[in-house]
Amino acid sequence: MLQRSERIIFNANRGKPSKRLLINEIIIIETTTLMILQHCDYQRLFPSWWLNEGNAMAQLEFTLRVVSPMFLNGADTRQPEMRAASVRGQLRYWLRAILGAQTDDLNRIWEREGAVFGSTGQGSAVSVRVFLPQSQPELKLEKVPMLPHREGTQANISRADAIKPNQSFDLQLVTRPGVDIPSDVSYALQLWSLLGGLGKRSRRMMGAIEIRPKATNMKWYEKPQTPDAFKDTLIKTLNDSVHSPIKMPEIPPFPVLRPNHSWIIIGSPANDPKEANQEFFRQLLRNSKFKPQQDVFGYAKGSNRRRASPVIAQVRKLGDNYYPVITAFRSQPLEKANYSDILRDFMQAATTHYNGIHVWGGW
Question: Do you find a cis peptide bond into 252, omega within 30 degrees of 0?
C-alpha cells in the first residue's frame, strides 16, 4: 500500500492522470505515507489543477525557543530530546481547557477534541512536527538541578541533563490534503505559549517556551515586552478562544478556563528563571503555611497514586527580566473539602507577595 501510493503520487507529473483515480488513491494514503509527504515539497509532487481545487495540505510554521532548562526525554530516559508527541499532549490539554470553558457537555468536548487530534473512531486532522533547524543542527544540553530551590541545603537537588535555554526548534502543524488548520488548534497553541511549558517540572518553571510564527502575516499576538502588555495579550487571547465562558457552580471534572474555576496572575521580575524558581518555592510553596499542605499541590505516592499539580507556575521573559506566570485550576478530584480554600489562599498569598497583576478568574 505504501509503495503503491508513493508511485501514484510521484508519477503525477508525467502527465495529467484521471482526477478520480488520483483523488481516490490519495484519500486512502496511510499515516506513514502522509508523514513522508510532509517532509517533501508537495507543491511539486501534485499537479497544479489538483492543488487549485483546495486539496493542498495546510501548514503553519513556528519557531519554538526554550526559555528555561527543559527536562524532556523519550524512550531513553537519560537522553533529552524534543518530542512531537509531548507538544501534541500540551495542545490537547489546553484545547480541553478552552472547550470546557465553553460548555459542560462532555460529549461535545470529546467530539471537538477528536475532530482535531483524533480518537479511537477517527484519525487526527493535524500532524505535529518538531525538529532542529538547519542553522542549529546539534541539540545543546547542560546538566542542571531539577530542584534548584534546594541549593544550599542537605537535600538532593536532582541534577540531570536538560535542553539548554535559547535552543530553538522548528515547529510545524500540518493537515491532511484539503483540510484547513482548525482555529481550535491555533488558540490552544497560543495559550500554551503564554501559560504552559514542556517536560518534567514544567509546572514548576522548567521547560518554559516562547513561540513565534515564521510568517509575518499570520494571525498571532505581538511579542509583549512588559507585564502589562503580557496581561493585555493574555486577556485578548482568552477572550478570543473561550468567547463567552460559562459560569458553573459545580467543580468541573478536569481543568477548564472558566473564570470561577481558574485563576491567573503575573508576579514580579527576576534576573533569570532559576531565581524566579527559588523565590516561588522558598517564599511561597514551601513556606510555613503551605508546606504542610503539599498534597493540595500535587503528589506522586508509589506507582499508582499520582495527582498533577493544579498550579502551573511558569516563567516568561518580558524585556530583560523573567516574570512568574501562575495559573491555578480548581477541578475534581478535590480529595478533601478544604483543598479549594487552600488553593484560594495560595493564590491570594502569591498576589500579595509579588504585588502581582491579576489577569483572570479567581474564587
Answer: no
| Nearest-10 Cα torsion for 218, 220, 222, 227 | -170
> What is d(CA 105, CA 110) in angstroms, rounded to the nearest whole number?
9
Q: What gap in Å lies between CA 23 and CA 56, rounded to an integer? A: 12
Which residue from 203, 310, 313, 329 is spatially nearest to 262, judged by alpha carbons?
A: 329
Whole-angstrom distance, CA of residue 93 vs CA of residue 87: 10
Tens of pLDDT along the chain (363 residues)? 333 333 333 333 333 333 333 333 333 333 333 444 444 444 444 444 344 344 456 899 999 999 999 999 988 888 999 999 999 999 999 999 999 999 999 999 999 999 889 888 778 889 999 999 998 889 999 999 999 999 999 999 999 999 999 999 999 999 877 788 889 999 999 999 999 999 999 999 999 999 999 998 888 999 999 999 999 999 999 999 998 888 788 899 999 999 999 999 999 999 999 999 999 999 999 999 999 999 999 988 877 778 899 999 999 999 999 999 999 999 988 777 799 999 999 999 999 999 999 999 999
Contact criterion met (CB below 8 Å) for 34 and 185: no
How is residue 80 written as a grid cell? 533529552
Kindly report each contact of residues 251-254 with a partner whose C-beta sits within 8 Å and lies 24 or more positions away, as own/partner.
Answer: 251/330, 251/331, 251/332, 251/334, 251/340, 252/100, 252/104, 252/330, 252/331, 252/332, 253/106, 253/331, 253/332, 254/96, 254/97, 254/100, 254/331, 254/332
Eight-class DSSP state of 179: -
pTM confidence score: 0.83
Beta-bridge partner residues of 150: none
